[in-house]
């Protein structure tokens, strides 16, 4: 079977890596398209290297732009590429602009689409990712869900159950595979960063970092919390570009650093006393690792991390943030379970299903 993978942004890379591997082991012919949505070395190349992903067969080099510009640019550059390769199926990942753009192109020219990490819903259409999820799932021919809430959401939206497969979380496949290597890099990282006890912060959502009236009070609260526990803050380019001058004036305990590689960030998540984030994937990784996660959002498309994991939704309730932060420091964290099928074998399940479809 000829399979084409489309990736574009940082959170795609750790999802595609294990699926590519599992399909390679079954002898499928594969190609990889990188849209170039993320293009900085620290946002892209270092992940290909650390995750042992082969170099892309095709690079679309679309770069940044408004949502319409970026999505349109991916579509117009991807169409001739996919027509030239004529794969039997295109696999798209997650909820970024590259995901929806590739799905839309394929569905119009009659090439089947498989969506990995299907069915997640925040029920918040002001999030660009929610629009990407809704459209991609409507267009996909095979939908691979990471948790059972995904199956329920898809059923409610009228998607035929025969197309939906609960396979588990492919990002956790990557985490499980690379955790021993992350453990190896941690001692040196700890020495280089002079770390003792620490917390970890990431913020990049437009709803949090674009507006001064939202971001500055948030940063002030983090400045304050860093007096109780030093906080490490690897900054996404979006946040850096918008706030470089203000970030330079942070409390020295709130340490602003460049984005980190996969192994380094995984090692920090495992060893942090607490993680404060607005990312989607980090809610899942901390749940698996048992690290308390305080999510600075009003909702999550990953509710299983609230019920079976270590995640708490904080929104912009700074009192709640302080309380949960102190609880985490006192070791009074939520008891963790691990969601079903977050077991390192989700990609194997996807590869099995695709192999069955081919025969
Ligand atoms: C994208 C995804 C988001 C995901 C995030 C992970 C969409 C709609 N959003 O958001 O779901 O959580 O990736 O990082 O697809 N930039 C650089 N260098 C890069 C990439 C981006 O400097 O390599 C800067 C540019 O100024 C760009 C801005 O970051 O305009 C935003 O990049 P973009 O790809 O539009 O969205 P992200 O915020 O990265």
Describe the structure.
The protein has 359 residues and is α/β, with parallel strands linked by helices. It folds into two domains: 2-169 and 342-358, Glycogen Phosphorylase B (Rossmann fold); 176-329, 3-Layer(aba) Sandwich (Rossmann fold), CATH 3.40.50. It has 15 helices and 13 strands. It has a seven-stranded parallel sheet with strand order 3-2-1-4-5-6-7, sandwiched between helices. Strands 10-9-8-11-12-13 form a six-stranded parallel sheet, with helices on both faces. β1 (2-7), α1 and β2 (29-34) form a beta-alpha-beta unit. α1 (10-25) packs across α7 (170-192), α1 packs across α15 (346-358) and α7 (170-192) packs across α11. It is globular and about 60 Å long. The relative contact order is 0.13. Uridine-diphosphate-N-acetylglucosamine (UD1) binds next to α1, α5 and α10.
* Ligand list: uridine-diphosphate-N-acetylglucosamine
CATH topology of the largest domain: Rossmann fold
**Could you give the count of β-strands?**
13
Arrangement of strands in the largest sheet: 3-2-1-4-5-6-7
Q: What's the overall geometry?
A: globular
What's the SSE pattern? EHEHEHEHEHEHEHEHHEHEHEHEHEHH
**Main sheet characteristics:** 7 strands, parallel
Instruction: Give average pLDDT, whole number.
Output: 96
Query: What's the end-to-end separation, in Å?
Result: 9 Å
Query: pLDDT below 50 for ≥5 consecutive residues: which ranges?
Result: none
Whole-angstrom Rg? 20 Å
The CATH architecture term of the largest domain is 3-Layer(aba) Sandwich
In DSSP terms, counting alpha (H) and pi (I) runs of 4 or more, how many helices? Answer: 15
Overall tally of structural domains:
2
Mind telling me the CATH superfamily name of the largest domain?
Answer: Glycogen Phosphorylase B
Q: How much strand?
A: 5-15%
CATH class membership of the largest domain: Alpha Beta
Structural class: alpha/beta
Helical residue percent band = 40-55%
């Amino acid at each position: 079977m000829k399979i084409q993978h489309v990736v574009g942004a940082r959170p795609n890379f750790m999802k595609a890596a294990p699926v590519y591997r599992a399909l390679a082991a079954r002898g499928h012919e594969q190609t990889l398209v990188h849209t170039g949505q993320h293009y900085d070395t620290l946002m892209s190349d270092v992940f290909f290297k650390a995750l042992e992903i082969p170099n892309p067969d095709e690079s679309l080099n679309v770069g940044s732009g408004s949502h319409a510009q970026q999505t349109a640019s991916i579509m117009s550059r991807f169409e001739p590429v996919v027509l030239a390769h004529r794969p039997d199926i295109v696999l798209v990942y997650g909820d970024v602009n590259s995901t929806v753009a590739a799905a839309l192109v394929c569905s119009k020219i009659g090439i089947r689409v498989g969506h990995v990490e299907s069915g997640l819903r925040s029920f918040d259409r002001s999030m660009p990712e929610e629009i990407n999820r809704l459209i991609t799932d409507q267009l996909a021919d095979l939908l691979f869900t990471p948790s059972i809430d995904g199956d329920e959401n898809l059923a409610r939206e009228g998607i035929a159950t025969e197309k939906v497969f609960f396979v588990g979380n492919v990002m956790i496949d990557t985490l499980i595979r690379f955790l021993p290597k992350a453990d190896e890099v941690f001692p040196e990282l700890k020495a280089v960063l002079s770390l003792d006890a620490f917390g970890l912060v990431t913020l990049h959502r437009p709803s949090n970092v674009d507006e001064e009236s939202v971001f500055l009070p948030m940063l002030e609260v983090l400045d304050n919390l860093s007096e109780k526990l030093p906080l490490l803050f690897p900054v996404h380019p979006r946040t850096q570009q918008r706030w470089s001058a203000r970030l330079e004036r942070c409390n020295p305990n709130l340490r602003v650093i460049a984005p980190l590689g996969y192994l380094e960030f995984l090692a920090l998540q495992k060893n942090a006393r607490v993680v404060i984030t607005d990312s989607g994937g980090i809610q899942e990784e901390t749940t698996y690792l048992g690290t308390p996660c305080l999510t600075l959002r009003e909702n999550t498309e990953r509710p299983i991390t609230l019920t079976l994991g270590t995640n708490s939704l904080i929104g912009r309730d700074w009192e709640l943030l302080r309380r949960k932060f102190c609880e985490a420091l006192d070791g009074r964290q939520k008891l963790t379970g691990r969601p079903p099928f977050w077991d390192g074998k989700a990609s194997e399940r996807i590869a099995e299903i695709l192999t069955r479809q081919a025969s």
